[in-house]
Write a sequence for this structure.
């Protein structure tokens, strides 16, 4: 028997294809984050909790996500590791 060497070309997905694949998932995560913040804020002591450094860090991350043009995941991990 002869070994068959079949090469399948690897094609990269376009930005539009990736957007279509992940848009609903990203939207769902953002909605979940907004709901968590609403629950924290409306809970007893929520006003003080919203001033916690962890919340401030989340808002800084949101700002970075809107301004950064590359390596967002790496930057996010660096911000969380400090």
């Amino acid at each position: 028997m002869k070994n068959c060497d079949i090469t399948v070309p690897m094609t990269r997905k376009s930005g539009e294809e990736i957007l279509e694949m992940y848009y609903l998932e990203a939207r769902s995560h953002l909605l979940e984050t907004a709901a968590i913040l609403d629950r924290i804020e409306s809970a007893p002591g929520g006003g003080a909790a919203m001033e916690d450094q962890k919340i401030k860090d989340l808002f800084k991350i949101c700002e970075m996500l809107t301004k950064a043009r590359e390596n967002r995941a790496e930057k996010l991990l660096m911000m969380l590791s400090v």
Notes: The mean pLDDT is 92. The CA atoms of residues 13 and 75 lie 24 Å apart. The chain has two domains: 16-49, 52-82.
